[in-house]
Amino acid sequence: MDVEGGWRKRLGTEFESLRRFFLATNRLPCSIQLDENTAVHWRIRDDGDRILARNDETYEIREVDRRVAELHRVNVRQLAQEVCSTFDWTDAFEQLGRTQHVCRIGRLPLEFDRATVFFVIRRRCEDMIRAIDAVARSASGPFLMLTPTGDTLANSLAWAERSGGHALALTELLSIADGKLRAEANWRATVQRAFGIEPEQSPAYQFRLIGKKYRMAAFDCEPFVIKETPGSFYLAAILGSPRQAIRATYLESMRSGINEIAKTGSVGAPIDEECRRQYGLRLQDIVTELKEHSADLGEERLSQLHHERDILMQTLNSATGLGGKLRENSDADRARKAVGVAIRRSIKEIRVNHEPMADYLAATIKLGFEITYTPPADLNWHL
User: In Å, how far are 155, 253, 266, 315 from 320, measured between CA atoms?
Assistant: First the structure.
């Protein structure tokens, strides 16, 4: 903790933009430096309705504003939330101990096995070692420990690694611009090196499954993670088969593992108007032939005509409803609607993370009884 003037001296021009991270307390320091141009400290005394400062060298006494003399502490909770939001980490704040000097702030992405992230504000080496012990007990597994700067890391880095963790300075991962926290472009590679992972060149175009619940997506951009849903499953199958018409019923069977015919009882689209017209003409021909030439036809031919007539009548009756309107095949239509809704919902989730990718998918994927992905140029999707 420090008075407002002390924080302002440390942070310089950045203080005003970062003022939101400081909370005034009711505590007063023993002494403060009233004049920035001198090293003289004035002893502080709370005189009830006023705050007095005394110069021990000259015995001068001044009345000072309480806001000037109050100690200010870092609002670690708000800082932690903004850090997690900056990197899109899972926010999970918890204070370890009576103060916010050692806190759990969240979890890393899946590529780092969702390791726990801790934030430690300690200066002395022995305090840092005690903090690492507390962090290791809370983490019960690999963890990442962040400190405000790298000043306190030199003597504690090896201790953190022996405890199963890794340590980095927050300044290695982000910077401050216009009062906002900005992630460094290479922050992911920095964390990978800390965890002993050789940084890899991430594919420009990817939509790959991570574990069972998430997908890593990228469209010539920084990769982002979305939840695995029926829609994302269908998108992956479609992206892997460009310019091929894939039946909605087939996509459903791929995901469920149930044979397409067994699942739906049908794999085709309902008959259209042209089919009904052709079936009707053929049925008229059969009826005419049976009426006019039944006496001249052999038994085998009569049996064939009767069988064909029955099939045509059954097909037309099942394909039409009231008023002679075509009835859509319920299985194929249900699959068309379900798959279409799932894909649109997945594209909507992608749009939240990267709008150009969502626009591209919406423009190149045609939905219906058959789904087709028709890219203007082939992309090397990593699926």
Answer: 81, 27, 17, 9
Flag whether pLDDT at 9 surpasses 70: no
Distance, C-alpha 99 to centroid of its chain: 31
- Is residue 344 within 8 Å of residue 231, measured between CB atoms? yes
Coil, strand, or helix at residue 142? coil
Closest by CA position to 334, among listed 275, 274, 269: 269
SS3 116: strand
Confidence (pLDDT) at 360: 93
Express each pLDDT in 130-179 by its tens digit. Answer: 877 788 888 877 888 888 766 555 556 666 776 777 888 888 888 777 77
Parse the chain into domains and list their residue ranges: 2-74, 76-194, 205-264+332-373, 273-292+302-327
Mean pLDDT of 91-116: 80
Q: For the chain, how far is it from start to end, CA to CA, in angstroms?
A: 50
Give, in words, the CATH class of 205-264+332-373: mainly alpha
Q: Supply the pLDDT for residue 129.
A: 76
Q: Can you say whether residue 362 is alpha, beta or left, with left for phi > 0 and alpha for psi between -120 and 50 degrees? A: alpha
Which tokens hold the place of 291? 């009426």
Which pLDDT band, with edges at 50, 70 and 90, does 262 fall under?
A: very low
The two structure tokens encoding residue 159: 């201790």
